[in-house]
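User: Here's a chain of 235 residues. Predict its fold as tokens.
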Amino acid sequence: MRPDIRLLIIVPARSGSKGIADKNVKPLAGKPLLQWTAEAVLAGDLSDTLAILSTDSSDYAELGRRLGLRVPYLRPAQHAGDDASAMQVIRHALEWFDSEHGYLPELTMWLQPTSPFRPPSILRQAVELVDAVGADSVIGCKEIHRDLTTLFRREQGFLQALDTRRPTQTSRQQSSPLLTPNGAMYLCKSAYLTEHGSFYPPRAAPLIMNAVQSLDIDTAEDWAIAEAYVKQGLV
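Assistant: Prediction complete.
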């Protein structure tokens, strides 16, 4: 018999935030930052899915429940500090799931509240892409219209191009865009996560998102950009 839950969605929201105090519950355009992601999860209307909030705060937990997320536990202190990695939090959630249900979900999705503008369709597209192309993971990405000849390291105080084998490509038309993860959506087969502790198996497929959808709020400047996007009707 096929397990009832194919996909576990983990929304991480710890209470300690140094850059912006209580960032995950700070109001953005009149609603807590966490609510943007919770609403995307509910509007995504994915079948065979369980969405949980992983938090160390009872106040955040209560908010998460009101927003429609399940909060089956409070995250222990060792998984909630500044040094706690995303993979620690994910492993903890998968261990809980296995203990609760007696199996692992086929897929695990990681949705950070700091990416409030991902549309619900992205969640559905990611799951569909796994099935369509046989991917082991799908990563939300944004395009960087740069060439490796115009990306540099600083070596001994001077610029050193990542690619010095060719002349510097200054024209956007001369190169295909590079891709970089935007932090908005990670989807991976749970078995790979538990075995390798990574979202990047050999068959990792990109899901391209635009600049607004890719915004990751980390600083006060990012927050101001987010408010401007809302004010201009871009979300």
